[in-house]
Amino acid sequence: MEKRKLSFWQIWNMSFGFLGIQMGFALQNANASRILQIFGADVHELSWFWIIAPLMGLIVQPIIGHYSDKTWGKFGRRKPYFLVGAILASIGLVLMPQADIFIAFLPALWVGAGFLMIMDASFNIAMEPFRALVGDNLRTDQRTLGFSVQTALIGFGAVVGSWLPYALTNWFGVSNETLAGVVPANLIWSFIIGAVILIISILVTVTTTKEYSPEELANFDNDTEEVSEEESSSLMDIFEDFKKMPTTMRQLSWVQFFSWFGLFGMWVFATPAIAQHIYGLPHTDSSSTTYQNAGDWVGILFGIYNLVSAFYAFALPYIAKQLGRKKTHSISLIIGGLGLLSIYVMPNENWLIVSMIGVGIAWASILAMPYAILAGSISAKKMGVYMGIFNFFIVVPQIINALIGGPLVKYAYNNEAIFALMISGFSFLIAAALVYKVKDVDDVVKIV
């Protein structure tokens, strides 16, 4: 048997929920550090709060992947998971910027960090099944297109999420001014709007996408590499699956490590780095109007790199057809690394747009190329658990950066967060070099 060939719009609807997920994720990425600083966190403490995100991914994604592989019911195999994840993430989005209403019970900083944890766990519940759904539903010759469409939707969602606070203030007059310890209204309303769009977009995928039954998937499965034909039923089998991971996956792990080490540093320290290095503010300033303007501009910059990634994603299948997936990914990472490094020499905030164009090219490739390469080496019966295990190589570098990033900023960089962004740029360049060690199982000509 062969999987049916899906139309572009069927593939689009299948991944449409990612638009809402990434909108919420972008709101978090661009504004969590800013919110935590408003609630009282010092610059060097930010990475410690952000460690919640990769820890949730490390714990949640393999478990969700394992159980979604085993699930089949009235609502499907993967769909129940990302629907529940979306509902929980929406709750976190609404309440995190309003954590100060709980100060009768706990300090706002800790309540905010708690809701950050809820959001991260929930985003991970929703994200992993979406990755596995593309592997489940698409033929080999459509997978690069599938992950590229997913990347485009991620980009569009992130643009809206990143630009929303700036748009509410500058286009609709919602205030971005704040008192000490209080999140401005434009951020609160942005998070509420993000929660609503997240639920709506997930429902589009749930109502328009059909999943293959386990029996159908078993007929499609070619057991491509190193995976036992015997179905596992124990959660502990995740560790056995980890030991038996495909060779391609092991090689990609190092590429992922340095890619995501760099991304985490950018997400955590972009706002304080740009506020200090470009706007000339002291590292202790987290409440002035200039600081809020810097935070809004970081949102614009994050939106720009996501917008670039959305359009570049559509070009990736064609570029990969000409150059091969490995070379395409390596070149994209080099451009992104140079983009991050260029921030140091940019004369003002407007020139940072050029830097973010480079980051957007790398981001699109990071979200698509490794998964397109990986999917060809995984058995359909293990798609969910291996996509979850693959997340180890995303979250472990983030945990390491979270542990060492803050102390480095405080003690090695003298609280100058710009140097954290420089390390991120060099990390991208290392990842680009490691791509060439990866074995791409599928024939590039056939899959694109």
Automatic annotation (TrEMBL):
It is a multi-pass membrane protein. It is found in: Membrane. SUPFAM superfamilies: MFS general substrate transporter. Its main location: membrane. The keyword Transmembrane applies. Pfam families: MFS_1. The chain crosses the membrane at residues 48-68, 80-96, 102-123, 144-167, 187-206, 252-274, 294-316, 328-345, 351-373, 385-405, 417-436. Residues 248-448 form the Major facilitator superfamily (MFS) profile domain. Keywords: Membrane, Transmembrane, Transmembrane helix, Transport. This is MFS transporter.
